[in-house]
Amino acid sequence: MELTIFQVDAFTDRVFAGNPAAVIPLSEWLPDNVLQSLALENNLSETAFFVPTPTDPNHDFHLRWFTPAIEVDLCGHATLASAAVLYRELGWSGDEIRFKALAGDLVVRKKGALFELDFPARAPKADEPPEGFVEALGTPPREFYKAKKFMAVLENEAAVLAVDPDMDFIAGMQGDGLIVTAPGRSDGSESIDCVSRYFAPHAGIPEDPVTGSAHCTIIPYWAEKLGKMDINAKQISARGGDLYCTLAGDRVLIAGQAVLYMKGAVHVGDGWSEQG
């Protein structure tokens, strides 16, 4: 069996930046163990698979995401990458794409060069960090919050950049990884409301380059703190990425660009192997 594969750099306007995602369109679902094996072989933070749903009046595609280790319920950059492939490579021409996913109904709209994700808000609640967290993080957080993902708020961008956490400790926390965030900056060349990094070693991702799902929690926090609904966010991993976000009630709109890096074919089966 031969499958078409795309690799897209998401939340960036250039290759070798943002977060790379693999996208594999399917006509029907393959067994879950095959999907997981494909994601492991790709060895990217996420591989997205989607199947058309022509008999479903509420959705255009069923979308799923796999890390090298597990299936996840929500992924921003691989959703953006999937939409970019549908619009730019597969001829989708509708005003929006309606996805059915584990996290519920998701919509992506094309707005010029940007793809806007309509995702659920996952507002955090103040909490106490677990015992040993400060030592594992290497610095005491200004505030600590819990949602589906944990979130530590630090003083400034320099503190976020300096974080080198104990990955074994982070992997053992009872949540979907750790967000580290701080106020942004305005230096004349760009205005950034907040910065962040995200660590998910439990999912086989020590540090994710740019994480749309993390901003489902980051944006409600900073919208309240800053008293504004429109938030320009930057994830300051080594690759880096830009997210243009809006808190809209119980939804977070997350927009970004995407660039095609690679298109190819995946051979599921024997490939070049020979018998005899």
Q: How are the SSEs ordered, and which strands pair?
A:
Elements (H helix, E strand, L loop, with lengths): L1 E9 L8 E7 L6 H11 L3 E7 L8 E6 L4 E2 L3 H13 L7 E6 L2 E8 L2 E7 L4 E2 L6 H5 L5 E4 L3 E4 L3 H6 L4 H6 L5 E9 L4 E10 L4 E4 L6 H12 L3 E6 L5 E8 L2 E6 L1 E10 L9
Parallel strand pairs: 2-3, 4-6, 11-12, 13-15
Antiparallel strand pairs: 1-2, 1-18, 3-4, 4-5, 6-7, 7-8, 8-17, 9-10, 10-11, 12-13, 13-14, 15-16, 16-17
Structure explained in plain terms:
Keywords: Isomerase. This protein has 276 residues and is an alpha+beta fold. The protein has two domains: 2-119 and 257-267, Roll (Diaminopimelate Epimerase, Chain A, domain 1); 125-249, Roll (Diaminopimelate Epimerase, Chain A, domain 1). It has helices at residues 32-42, 76-88, 133-137, 157-162, 167-172, 215-226; strands spanning 2-10, 19-25, 46-52, 61-66, 71-72, 96-101, 104-111, 114-120, 125-126, 143-146, 150-153, 178-186, 191-200, 205-208, 230-235, 241-248, 251-256, 258-267. The longest helix has 13 residues, at 76-88. The mean pLDDT is 95.
